[in-house]
Amino acid sequence: MRSVLLSVFLCLLACLGASAQTSVSGQTMALPAAQADTLETDSVVVSLLTCSPGTEVYQLYGHTALRVTDSRRHLDLVFNYGVFDFRTPHFTWRFILGQCDYQVAAYPYELFLEEYRERGSSVTEQVLNLTPTETLRLCQALALNALPENRTYRYDFLRNNCTTRARDMVEQALDGHVAYEESPEPRTYRQLLHRCTQDYPWSALGNDMLLGADCDTLLSDRAAQFLPAQLMSYMEGAQVFDSLENRRPLVRETRLLLAEDARRMAARKAVLPLGGRLTPRVVGWGLVALGLVVALVEYRTRRMWWMVDALLMSLQGVAGLLLCFMFLFSEHPTVDSNWQVLLFHPLALLLMPWVVRSARHRKVCLYHYANMLCLVLFLGFMPWIPQDFSTLTLPLALVLLIRPMSYYLHYSRT
To answer: Of the four, 151, 252, 360, 364, which is 20 to 30 A from 31 by CA?
Structure first.
């Protein structure tokens, strides 16, 4: 059980870093802006690199980077917009507040490829179909962006991450505009994130517990490009239109640079609790069954177990503190529209001593009646709340409802 709780805690934190390439900034090689001005663009190729997900929680969403190759100068660099430094002062606190500052770093392509070779991920390259002028403009912009005074940006895991930054740099260098193929399938942020975490139910739980109703609004095709795999798919069919409405494909060639390692699939199952059988759904309904058993024993023995109230209200209150803090103070997207604050709230933690004292002295506690009314209303209106809740929300709401109903039966008899 301790490993399960640790997994949930890590998922809650890791969901805030979706689409991020977890790296520690160190020495990097940059393409000087002056050198970029003198590039002979007939020998320069710029491409988009898309890396498949890894097995760690923060690797589940893949990664995107830009590659610049100059065959004449034997230059091969990767511009990575997913770099951050754990040594930054107050890093953890700023991470929780959503004040994450990421950086772009340029370093040799071989170092980049080696990292994903060790991870077991695949790397796909889409060679961009750029004119010499566009190639020069993009290289100059990347070189300027990688300077120490320019390389830091405020990270937003849904709207301004390593993937959207790479896309924006390419679009800004074009003479014209890009038209992406429309997706016939309507989807939301949450649905796209679930595709990445379908084999990792505890990571999906972390996302669903923290992300609110704004995560369930339908996305435009452009907004859906925040994930690496999504952007790669859109780039494949993208067309560039110039001022005369002449068009050309944005991607000239797609090739697989590194195949996915089959060992990664085995490693994926190894990190799941009990090989993937202990899912949040199983745990949730197991808690409901346990709650019913406790209520039945209390009814038969005519004794209420105040220790159960202390445990449940403590957990409810701590979860409420986290959700309310994120709701009120965090800059992370969509956390300020989370309806689960109605279910998990700090009030339970404040009133817990009063409830326990009443139970120990066998006195009627009005909190149970008020709590039962609130839980019934929440469950009754749950189908109409514009938010897709986690698989644990309904079972936990029922567990919390069992307690006041058990007290109501106890009061009726005594």
So the answer is: 252
242 and 138 inside one domain: yes
Per the structure, the complete domain to which residue 338 belongs is given by 279-413
User: Average pLDDT, stretch 118-130?
Assistant: 93
**3 falls within a domain:** no
Task: Please give the share of the chain, as a percent, with pLDDT higher than 70.
Answer: 86
Work out how many domains the chain is built from and give that number.
2
Backbone angles phi, psi at 267, to 5 degrees: -65, -35
The residues, ordered by sequence, that sit 6+ positions from 123 with a Cβ below 8 Å of its Cβ are: 49, 50, 51, 52, 113, 116, 256, 257, 258
> Which residues, including other chains, have CB under 8 Å from residue 182's CB and lie 6 or more apart?
221
247, part of any domain: yes
- Residue 90: burial class (beta carbons within 10 Å; 0-12, 13-18, 19+): exposed
- Convert 258-317 into a string of H (helix), E (strand) and C (coil): ECCCCHHHHHHHHCCHHHHCCCHHHHHHHHHHHHHHHHHHHHHHCCCCHHHHHHHHHHHH
Model confidence pLDDT, tens digit, residues 178-198:
999 988 888 999 999 999 988
